[in-house]
Specification:
Strand order of the largest sheet: 1-2
Number of strands: 4
Number of helices: 10
Distance between the termini: 44 Å
Order of helices and strands: HEHEEHHEHHHHHH
Structural class: mainly alpha
Length: 252
């Protein structure tokens, strides 16, 4: 403009041209607040009109993070809430609850999971006390489940993937857990196709719930029945693999 400033539209168009000249991507994904949807409709239309790119363009919108009253999440003085400040608050809460835990890992987990478990198009209320709870649909519950499985596996000298397993009937909770594990591929493909990570986050919570029900129902460590113990240890190993795989995908 005549005063030396730039419009969002001209800046974004120039960025497309620069990227086309530099890396020529096949897809452009704009992961930006849903309230900017009209801007991106105009941007994509302009790119096609001027024939700046033949690539695919998509706006992946997301909702706002709100306080407990449903208003956009801000600090007490009305400013936008910095992520670093929120991180410090969660870290302080977790450190006070239990000095023995790794508060840094759990803080990162809380921030990632609480954001991704909500449908990205929805606005949601960020409740620090709820998201730092041990019980319920929280990152801490997921992490504790993972630790519980690893502690059991580490407590025995276990030959992984042994074929020497029991033919005794499966208990209901064991069957339910295995069925959940088998759903991973479908859930992953749905999340990938729709670009909606909450399907995977919800599924992760489901697997952890099913495991904890199984854990309460049966005696996993059973020296008097080695083949049954071996089968259940394999179930634990499969569960742990799924949990850690989804952790890696979601960035937990």
């Amino acid at each position: 403009k005549s005063d030396g400033t730039y419009l969002y539209m001209t800046t974004d168009l120039a960025t497309v041209l620069d990227r086309e000249n530099g890396i020529s991507p096949d897809y452009y994904f704009y992961i930006v607040d849903s309230r900017q949807s009209e801007h991106f409709k105009q941007l994509f239309s302009s790119v096609k009109f001027f024939n700046f790119s033949n690539s695919e363009f998509e706006h992946i919108g997301f909702g706002t993070i709100n306080d407990l009253e449903g208003k956009p999440f801000k600090t007490r003085d009305g400013e936008t809430y910095p992520l670093e400040k929120l991180w410090q608050e969660i870290y302080s809460i977790l450190e006070k609850k239990n000095k023995a835990i790794n508060a840094e890992i759990l803080t990162n987990s809380v921030l990632v999971f609480s954001d991704l478990v909500v449908d990205r198009k929805s606005n949601y209320k960020f409740d620090i006390n709820q998201f730092t709870n041990i019980e319920g649909k929280t990152a801490i519950y997921l992490q504790y489940t993972r630790v519980r499985i690893k502690s059991i596996l580490d407590s025995l000298e276990f030959v992984k993937y042994s074929t020497n397993t029991s033919e005794e009937d499966f208990v209901d909770s064991e069957t339910s857990l295995l069925i959940s594990i088998l759903k991973f591929s479908d859930i992953f493909n749905r999340s990938k196709k729709l670009k909606e990570p909450h399907h995977l986050a919800e599924y992760l919570y489901e697997v952890c719930q099913k495991f904890n029900s199984f854990y309460k129902d049966v005696k996993i460590i059973n020296p008097n029945n080695e083949s049954l113990q071996n089968r259940r240890m394999n179930v634990l190993l499969s569960t742990l693999n799924i949990i850690e795989l989804i952790f890696e995908i979601l960035g937990i």
